[in-house]
Amino acid sequence: xxxxxxxxxxxxxxxxxxxxxxxxxxxxxxxxxxxxxxxxxxxxxxxxxxxxxxxxxxxxxxxxxxxxxxxxxxxxxxxxxxxxxxxxxxxxxxxxxxxxxxxxxxxxxxxxxxxxxxxxxxxxxxxxxxxxxxxxxxxxxxxxxxxxxxxxxxxxxxxxxxxxxxxxxxxxxxxxxxxxxxxxxxxxxxxxxxxxxxxxxxxxxxxxxxxxxxxxxxxxxxxxxxxxxxxxxxxxxxxxxxxxxxxxxxxxxxxxxxxxxxxxxxxxxxxxxxxxxxxxxxxxxxxxxxxxxxxxxxxxxxxxxxxxxxxxxxxxxxxxxxxxxxxxxxxxxxxx
Length: 336
Description:
This protein has 336 residues and is of the alpha/beta class. It has helices at residues 49-52, 80-92, 100-104, 142-152, 174-183, 203-220, 292-301, and strands at residues 62-65, 67-68, 77-78, 95-97, 115-122, 161-164, 187-190, 228-230, 245-246, 249-250, 253-255, 278-279, 315-317, 333-335. The strands form five sheets. Strands 1, 4, 5, 6, 7 and 12 form a six-stranded parallel sheet that branches. Strands 2-3 form a two-stranded parallel ribbon. Strand 4, helix 3 and strand 5 (115-122) form a beta-alpha-beta unit. The relative contact order is 0.20.
C-alpha cells in the first residue's frame, strides 16, 4: 500500500517512551606420540574503540520492505533480485542485522567495526514468508533469500522483524508461519489487525485496532513476546501515546514510515515512540532521495554511521560526541 513519506522533523513532538590439536582424552592418530597436554589456542587480539573507529552514537538504517514480486506495481514493491542485491550490499559493507526489539532497547551485540541494520517487513505477505510442504521457505521469499545471504556471508545474521496483520501469511497459515518465525529467531511484531489508519480513529478505536492485532498474534502463536508496533500508513494516532500503551499491549518501539535513518538508541534524541524507517528503493526509483540506495551511499560516505566496539555492555564513541549521550547510558559510556 502507498504510504506517505513522513520527515522525522515533522514528528519531533511524538511521544518518546536501547585451536588446533586433539582435545583432552582424544587418542592420538596411530604412529603419533601423545602430547602431554593440548596446546593453548592463540589469544585473539582485541581491538580498542579508536582502532575500529567505534561510534555507537551514530545513525542506524531501519529498512522497510513490503511485497517481493517480479512485476512491481508500486514504489513499495521490490523484485526478489532487488532484495537479494540489497542484502549482498549490506553484507559487503559490514552491516549485521538486528531485530527491532533488540535495537530499540539497546541490545546491539555485533562484532567490532560492524554496523547494525534493522530489516523490517510490513503487511505479512506471502512473498515474505511461504513454507513448502517440507516446512522449508519457498524459493525467492524474503526468508529464503535471507538464509541464502547468511550462508554465503556467515557474519550476516538471518534475522528481521515482521510487522503482521491478522490472518498473516495466508498461503502457509498464521499459526504455522508465526511459529516458524519465532522458532527461527525472527521477531513477530504488530501492524494492527486490519491495517487501520490510526489517525482516522478516535483514541478508543485506535487502541482497539492495536489490541486486536496483539491478540491475533498471541492466538496464532501462543507465548510470542510482542514489543514493537509499526504504524499503518505511518499514521500516528492522537494522542501519540496510545500507540505504545493501552489495554493489553505495551511496546518498547513504535515505527513510522519516515524517510531517514534513526539516531542511535543510546542518543538523548532517540524517541522510541516515533522511530523512522527508510523505504527500500533503487538509486533511480521514485522518491529515490528518501530510499535505501541513496541513504546507504550517504552513510558510507559520511562520518556519522553507527560503528560497534564489539562489546554489548559498553557504549563507545568519540569524546567530542559526549553531549549526545542519553544520561540513561552514562554508566556504560566508553568515550575515547
